[in-house]
């Protein structure tokens, strides 16, 4: 009779989105990832797998030993294997410090994303289990979180790094409902080798203290009650509630033209979420105090950054105004608006995680061959059609877009769905809007048909973008 671990892996492999795909498997060398890789190997054979190992170089020779161990395990079974090494401490320090644990997580996902993209794969399978989920929830509660954060990890999720190269990647966690003790039993019963990570005993990491100090106390207080299963149910319910509120808030905003009384009659949770979505569009944090401050003081200006104030109008929309207090990074991060010259010129603008550089080039002959071609992180537009004022922002409910090559415009939400852009990622992408004319660019995806260069184009705007290395998310 198959074990609980085998059953969940079997169900995962039969999922319609998974069947037939080659799977990239994140393998650290620890018990949970080695059991995952071994079971996938037994159920699919080696040809549908790519084992991926990231060496963080945090534990010297021990880290190098983990890499050799996983590689040897794969070689003996003819499982394709790829590894990346990253000096996490140095990279993390260059990026501004903060939590080393969180920095290592981000670098790990960046490396995994590069492996998947480089091999044309879209499915990353990770070995997070029920105990990992429990620890994650307590970490978020301690650090502060809202209902979205209570969703923690999901069995199927969008890739957590906002990068155009990773937009089609999915993360799967088939063991998320399985306690770690069942995974250990499976390793023992099947003789699956694994290595112990000495950093799991380091009390400087919050997760380790939760595991070694807090959870044994909760076990003692809960007695025989299945409290870990209750936490798993809470995360699933929270994720579903968040998805429902997202859809309800977007429907409200896309309808438009509401009377003031209509907004006041909405449940407080939905009113708050409508504000949350608008703050997300502006790239601002939606901390509880900020949301309640806006709702609790309608029509009053609330300072939300060093040079930006917002107020909640009676119909539920946010109005904003700048506050002149000198030049700061907040200005470009929240407004992202620039006026273009009617002659040759260049400049740059920042918005959240992006820096965009633009240059307007006029041809002496008017021949399109004089203009540069597009390329990676680069597009070219007809400057005269784009006009004199452009704005960087996030997707908003009701936006319409005419993708290049399509017969006509459509709702951006519908286009995102057709392109299978994950819901979480839609509000991370940056769009460029020609004020009064519409959206002409979506980060890393498409340009608008109406803004492309044509044979009669005489002025081209060359558009380059890159990641903002100094950006720190405010949410």
Characterize the main sheet. 6 strands, mixed
What is the number of E strands?
Answer: 20
CATH class of the largest domain: Alpha Beta
- Please tell me the total number of domains: 3
Rounded mean pLDDT is 84
Fraction of residues in β-strands: 15-25%
What order do the strands of the largest sheet run in, or round the barrel if closed?
3-2-1-4-6-5
CA-atom Rg in angstroms:
25 Å
**Secondary structure: helix percent:** 40-55%
CATH topology of the largest domain: Rossmann fold
Shape: globular
Structural class: alpha+beta
What is the CATH homologous superfamily assignment of the largest domain?
HUPs
Number of helices: 17
Task: Put the structure in a nutshell.
Helices cover 40% and strands 20% of the residues. With 475 residues, the protein is of the alpha+beta class. It is built from 17 helices and 20 strands.
Description:
The chain has 475 residues and is of the alpha+beta class. The protein folds into 3 domains: 4-228, Rossmann fold (3-Layer(aba) Sandwich); 256-328, no CATH class; 336-467, no CATH class. It contains 17 helices and 20 strands. It has helices at residues 4-13, 31-44, 61-77, 88-94, 100-118, 130-143, 147-150, 180-190, 206-222, 227-255, 260-265, 268-281, 288-296, 329-334, 383-386, 412-418, 423-426; strands spanning 23-26, 49-55, 81-85, 123-125, 156-158, 170-172, 302-305, 308-312, 318-322, 337-339, 345-351, 354-362, 378-382, 389-394, 400-401, 410-411, 430-434, 438-442, 446-447, 459-467. The strands form 5 sheets. The protein has a 6-stranded mixed sheet, with helices on both faces. α4 packs across α5. Mean pLDDT is 84; it is low at 325-335 and 470-475.
């Amino acid at each position: 009779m198959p074990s609980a671990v085998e059953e969940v892996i079997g169900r995962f492999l039969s999922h319609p989105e998974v069947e037939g795909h080659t799977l990239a498997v994140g393998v650290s060398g620890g018990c949970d990832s080695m059991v995952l890789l071994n079971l996938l190997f037994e159920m699919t054979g080696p040809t549908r797998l790519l084992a991926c190992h990231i060496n963080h170089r945090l534990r010297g020779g021990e880290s190098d030993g983990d890499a050799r161990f996983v590689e040897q395990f794969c070689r003996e079974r003819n499982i394709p294997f790829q590894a990346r090494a990253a000096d996490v401490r140095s990279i993390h320090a260059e990026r501004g410090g903060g939590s080393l644990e969180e920095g290592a997580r981000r670098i790990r996902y960046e490396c995994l994303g590069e492996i998947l993209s480089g091999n044309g794969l879209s499915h990353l399978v990770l070995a997070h289990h029920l105990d990992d989920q429990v620890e994650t929830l307590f970490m978020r509660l301690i650090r502060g979180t809202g209902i979205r954060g209570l969703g923690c990890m999901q069995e199927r999720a969008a890739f957590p790094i906002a990068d155009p190269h990773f937009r089609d990647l999915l993360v799967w966690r088939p063991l998320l409902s399985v306690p770690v003790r069942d995974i250990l039993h499976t390793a023992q019963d099947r003789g699956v080798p694994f290595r112990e990570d000495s950093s799991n005993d380091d009390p400087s990491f919050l997760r380790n203290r939760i595991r070694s100090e807090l959870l044994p106390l909760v076990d003692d207080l809960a007695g025989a009650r299945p409290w870990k299963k209750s936490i798993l149910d809470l995360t699933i319910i929270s994720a579903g509630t968040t998805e429902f509120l997202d859809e309800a808030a977007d429907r409200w905003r896309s309808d438009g033209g509401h009377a003031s009384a209509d907004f006041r009659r909405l449940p407080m949770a939905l009113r708050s979420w409508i504000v949350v979505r608008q703050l997300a569009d502006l790239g601002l944090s939606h901390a509880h105090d900020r949301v309640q401050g806006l709702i609790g003081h309608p029509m009053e200006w609330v300072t939300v950054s060093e040079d930006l104030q917002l107020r909640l109008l009676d119909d539920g929309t946010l109005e904003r105004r700048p506050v002149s207090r000198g030049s700061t990074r907040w200005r470009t991060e929240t407004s992202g608006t620039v006026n273009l010259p009617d002659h040759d010129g260049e400049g740059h603008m920042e918005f959240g995680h992006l820096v965009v550089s633009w240059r307007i080039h006029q041809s002496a002959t008017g021949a399109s061959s004089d203009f540069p071609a597009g390329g990676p992180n680069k597009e070219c537009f007809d400057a005269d059609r784009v006009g004199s004022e452009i704005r960087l922002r996030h997707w908003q409910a009701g936006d319409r877009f005419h993708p290049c090559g399509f017969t006509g415009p459509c709702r951006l939400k519908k286009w995102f769905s057709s392109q299978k852009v994950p819901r979480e990622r839609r509000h991370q992408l940056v769009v460029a809007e020609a004020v009064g004319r519409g959206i002409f660019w979506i980060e890393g995806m498409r340009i608008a048909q109406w803004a492309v260069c044509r044979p009669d184009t005489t002025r081209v705007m060359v558009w380059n973008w890159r990641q903002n290395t100094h950006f720190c998310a405010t949410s």
